[in-house]
Each structure stands twice: as C-alpha cells, then as structure tokens.
Amino acid sequence: MQSAKSLSLSIFLTAFHFAAKLIGGYITNSLALVSDAWHLLTDLLSLIISWWAIKKAVQPPNAWATYGFHRVGILAALVNNVSLVAVSFYILYQAYLRFLHPETIETAGMSILAIVGIIISAAIVYLIHDGAKNNLNMRSVWLHFAGETCASIGVLAGGVVIYFTHWYWIDTFLSGILGLTILRGALIMLKDIIIILLEGIPDNLSLQEITACLNQLPDVTAARDIHVWCLAEEQIALSAHIEIASDIPLSQTEPLLKQIKEMLAGTFHITHVNIQFELHECRDCHHV
Ligand SMILES: [Zn+2]
Ligand SMILES: [Zn+2]
Ligand SMILES: [Zn+2]
C-alpha cells in the first residue's frame, strides 16, 4: 500500500498548492496562475479518486462483482480525464478573453507562486515515482505531475521575461499552451479508457495474429469465436472455441489447454483464459 500512502501525502500537498495558486492568482492578476489553480482542483479530485481506486482494486471478487474491482480504476480515470477536458476548455476560453482585453500582471508574486508550484509538483513526482513503475494508473498521475512541474517552470520563465520586457501577452500565451497540453494528454488517455470500456482489443494486439498462433498449435483443428478484452489495464482476457480432431477424454485435453495458456501468456500477455473444446463448429460460434 506504498502507492496509497504516497497518494494521500500528494493530496495534502495539492490541496495547499491549489489554495495558494487561486488566492495568489487573483492578487497578482496572472491568468496563467488562476488557470493553473482550477486545473489543480481537478488534480486534487483525480488524486482522491486514484487513491480510492487503488484501495478498492485489491479487494477480492465476490458473488456480485465476479471479476473483482479492477475496473474501479478505469472509472476513476474516466472521471479524471473528462474533468481535465472541461478544465482545458475553460482555460482556453479565459485565455481568449484575456487576449481580447489584455491586462497588466504583478510579476514578483507570479514568480514566487511558480516556484512554490515547481517545489510541490516535483515533490509529488518523487513520491509517486516508485508506484508508477508497475501501475498504469499511477504512471498517468506521475506523468501528469511531471508535466505540471514543466508548466510551473514555464510560468516562472514567463514571470522573469515579463518583469524585464513588460510583454504581458506572454502570460496569455502560456495559459493557452497549458490548456492545449492538458487537452492533448486527456484525449490520449480517454482513447485507452474507451477501448477498455467498449471491450475492444488492446492497441498492441491483433486478433488475426492470436488466431494464427492458436491454429498453429498441434492438435488444434480450428480456433473460433475468439473474444479478447481488457478487464483493466494489463489484465487481458480471452475466450475461444477450440476444435480438436478426435473425441478424446477430458483428461487428455489438459496438456493442450496448458500449452494454449502458456502460449497466450508468453506471447500476448493474456492471463485470463477461457477455452471451450468442441468437435464441430457449434451453433454459438460467430465469425469476425
Ligand atoms: Zn494537473
Ligand atoms: Zn462469441
Ligand atoms: Zn463453438
């Protein structure tokens, strides 16, 4: 539960960060800071949801949730990313308004808050680093805060440039870039989430390849009605009908079943396998 611990610490840091940026943003009149504050609110939400999902995902299956709770993490990621899309549109809209009506900014305060942002985001990146190695949900949080650190460095650089040049448009420009970056990241992650929720085959697998590999196994006459889907990230399931040549006793199908499972796990990382042996194409068999 190391991940849950580092996430809960990150939640406190982000809550403080949000309050500081929001108040500071209004005092200094920096749009980049205010935009960042609203986006930090969704960060806070996403950290809380991720923390809850990590606790929930380890619960064993029960009579109601026969697969367990792996998909709680996917639902968490869906909520996170939809809220990020909304935030990015809000930021872009605010940048557009500021572009139409430019305003001056208090650069010293802006730079100090940017430094606070760099320190807190970098601390979270460090905290989450270990958990991100083997968990995609944690890795997306890690990636997000790595981006955050870069955004704060950008705001700091902007503050310094504005201090010397009085090019106030840089602030608007920076928040526009921030909005687009968040939007891009959220859309990329949404694509993966939608593939999982629609039970599509993972991006890196091909049904043709899997079918060919199954058909190549000795004793397999034909592999049919193959379904491949993700229970959650990195938890791939497959079900298939396998036609065999002769009417052998059940005990003799065991070596073949073992071979099928080893091939699927070794070649395709498919670990949740359900096979129905048959002598003829059955009525339920469908073809893609
Ligand atoms: Zn963020
Ligand atoms: Zn089917
Ligand atoms: Zn069948």
UniProtKB/TrEMBL annotation:
<dbReference type="Pfam" id="PF01545">
    <property type="entry name" value="Cation_efflux"/>
</dbReference>
<dbReference type="GO" id="GO:0005886">
    <property type="term" value="C:plasma membrane"/>
</dbReference>
<keyword id="KW-0406">Ion transport</keyword>
<comment type="similarity">
    <text>Belongs to the cation diffusion facilitator (CDF) transporter (TC 2.A.4) family. SLC30A subfamily.</text>
</comment>
<dbReference type="InterPro" id="IPR058533">
    <property type="entry name" value="Cation_efflux_TM"/>
</dbReference>
<feature type="transmembrane region" description="Helical">
    <location>
        <begin position="74"/>
        <end position="96"/>
    </location>
</feature>
<feature type="domain" description="Cation efflux protein cytoplasmic">
    <location>
        <begin position="202"/>
        <end position="278"/>
    </location>
</feature>
<dbReference type="InterPro" id="IPR027469">
    <property type="entry name" value="Cation_efflux_TMD_sf"/>
</dbReference>
<feature type="transmembrane region" description="Helical">
    <location>
        <begin position="141"/>
        <end position="164"/>
    </location>
</feature>
<feature type="transmembrane region" description="Helical">
    <location>
        <begin position="108"/>
        <end position="129"/>
    </location>
</feature>
<dbReference type="Pfam" id="PF16916">
    <property type="entry name" value="ZT_dimer"/>
</dbReference>
<dbReference type="InterPro" id="IPR027470">
    <property type="entry name" value="Cation_efflux_CTD"/>
</dbReference>
<dbReference type="InterPro" id="IPR002524">
    <property type="entry name" value="Cation_efflux"/>
</dbReference>
<dbReference type="GO" id="GO:0005385">
    <property type="term" value="F:zinc ion transmembrane transporter activity"/>
</dbReference>
<feature type="transmembrane region" description="Helical">
    <location>
        <begin position="37"/>
        <end position="54"/>
    </location>
</feature>
<dbReference type="InterPro" id="IPR050681">
    <property type="entry name" value="CDF/SLC30A"/>
</dbReference>
<keyword id="KW-0813">Transport</keyword>
<dbReference type="InterPro" id="IPR036837">
    <property type="entry name" value="Cation_efflux_CTD_sf"/>
</dbReference>
<protein>
    <submittedName>
        <fullName>Cation efflux protein</fullName>
    </submittedName>
</protein>
<keyword id="KW-1133">Transmembrane helix</keyword>
<feature type="domain" description="Cation efflux protein transmembrane">
    <location>
        <begin position="9"/>
        <end position="198"/>
    </location>
</feature>
<feature type="transmembrane region" description="Helical">
    <location>
        <begin position="176"/>
        <end position="198"/>
    </location>
</feature>
<keyword id="KW-0472">Membrane</keyword>
<keyword id="KW-0812">Transmembrane</keyword>
